[in-house]
Amino acid sequence: MIREAAAQGAQLVVLEELFASPYFCQSQDPEQFKLAEPNDGQSVQAMTALARELRISLIVPFFERRAPGLFHNSLVVLGPSGERLGLYRKMHIPEDPQFEEKFYFTPGDVREPGNSSGGFSTFDIPEARVGTLICWDQWYPEAARLTALQGAELLVYPTAIGWMSSEKAEQGAAQLSAWQTMQRSHAIANGVFVVAVNRVGLEGPKESGIEFWGHSFVCDPLGRILVEGGEEEAVLIADLDLSLIEETRKWWPFLRDRRIDAYGAITKRWNDDT
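User: That's the sequence. What structure does it adopt?
Assistant: Structure tokens below.
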């Protein structure tokens, strides 16, 4: 499917979260740590060769073994010569029924002053500056904003999100709508493109597994969906006119009008100064 995307002219290809295996976080199983790889492991090496062969940039999520007992939900950004442009480690780690990610993953490091690695990050591919975030990160305006403030022209969210069979009938439509609305709001609030790439299909028993809802999409800085998938595997291609970023920000200058002098309380867990 990566080859198919490249044949259709894709210059950047984005894979879904933890693409190389089933979504193993549905239970707490120490055996699953065997799936983890170093950040130059087999999956990354295979994708590096493919990026070089096809002359594309490629975003590769993977289960990272950083050190004994230390694991991350990570991605690497590869350039069209197979060069490694950067590493991002998921910053927000969920803990919900069948999304037992805190059992497996350590949150990414906070970027320290003078250190260009860690934390929310952007990476330059030949065509654009890309900001990478992963799944649960997509619910946090702070993550989108801090990444956009580093000059990201598109925010990319490899994702694994879906319905529980017990919830789909009553809440499924609202959950899907909320997921899309949240990410479209990041595009609008920051004047950037958003690329959301989700898993598809049922994983686990029919009665109790997760039905990943797909609906991968790309939207522009006005929040307009340019292309959207369904609930089946698909290759989606979108042409992004990056000049729309500046044009949109002229009329909606949200970054200009930010009151940075008034936002100190955002670093608190909860403002109890009442």
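The chain has one domain: 2-267.
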